[in-house]
Amino acid sequence: QTWRFGLEEIEDSVQYAYGARFAELMDERTDGAVTVQLYPYGQLGGLTDIYDAVQSGAIQLAFGSGFLGGTVPESQLFSLNFILTEDEWTNTQILNSDEFLRSEDFQDSFRDRDLHPLAIVPEGWQVWTANTEIRTPDDFSGVAIRTMDNRLLRETYQAYGADPTTMEYGEIYSGLQLGQIEGNIQPVFAHQEMSFYEVQDYMIFANHKEFIATFMGNRDWYDGLSDELREIVHEVTAELVEYIHDVQQQLNEERLDIITDNSDIQIIELTSDERDAFRELSMPVRDTFVDMVGERGERLLERLLELVEEHDES
Ligand code: 6CS
Fold this sequence. Notes:
Blueprint: E1 2-6, H1 14-29, E2 35-39, H2 47-56, E3 61-64, H3 88-95, H4 104-111, E4 115-130, H5 137-140, E5 146-147, H6 151-159, E6 165-166, H7 172-177, E7 183-187, H8 188-193, E8 202-205, E9 210-218, H9 219-223, H10 227-262, E10 266-269, H11 272-293, H12 295-313
Parallel strand pairs: 1-2, 1-3, 5-6, 8-10
Antiparallel strand pairs: 3-9, 4-7, 4-8, 4-9
Helix pairs in contact: 1-10, 3-12, 6-11, 11-12
Residues 8-9, 47, 65-67, 148, 169, 186-187, 190, 211 line the site of ligand 6CS.
């Protein structure tokens, strides 16, 4: 059998690395009985077309991130800023724990929409770029920054004083070039592979949140797997947690070198006091999330904050 896997990113991205390794391991563990075919971003249309395809069963597997809020509102939890720890590996483990990923609330958030969540994949810190220096919320004032399409992100950047605009991933480069947008938010590897950095002057590390995607399958496809195949999928996704963590860190590091070698973009790292100003402004957006998404979303937010707190105490 062939499983079709829709990616939100192009070749050489973190999602592509995940997909390629997933395909390799599935082939190996099933002695060639399962072939996974990857569809990099663009091949299935826009981002929401990918989610529609996996929901309807036209494809079996996909990644879903910032644009998934219209399909799985609870997934906007991953759009909130300053809710996880400052350590990427800790966050990856918390998100993929039985207590979070396999909780009824998280599973049902997807299953109620004909999807099944298989793994959560942090892809590196979100990094701001702009043509002006941004260190304070004041600096953000009036900056037309592009966000992925979900209300939580727009609310967050409004709270920071910016003027957020939503735009499809494939339109950002020309949007920046034409001045329709003035700023952008991506993990480092994406700023590089999509060439966005070429048309931006400043790159600002605020470590306010990681880019987080969910690896998901069509629900009926998942429910129809044999016990043996389901077990293999679980084994492989469990193995890939550490694999992709290492890959994303390395990719993001290497790509930053490419960016600095090929441009005179200025790199800014916010101090912890500077970050605190943004942290404070991000807090009320948690209430917006709860108002918007309801009780299940609230329980998921609380669960995540508890797991972070338990970790901080240990
Ligand atoms: O900004 C976006 O729309 C896209 N960026 C990345 C790094 N992955 C997928 C996402 O949709």
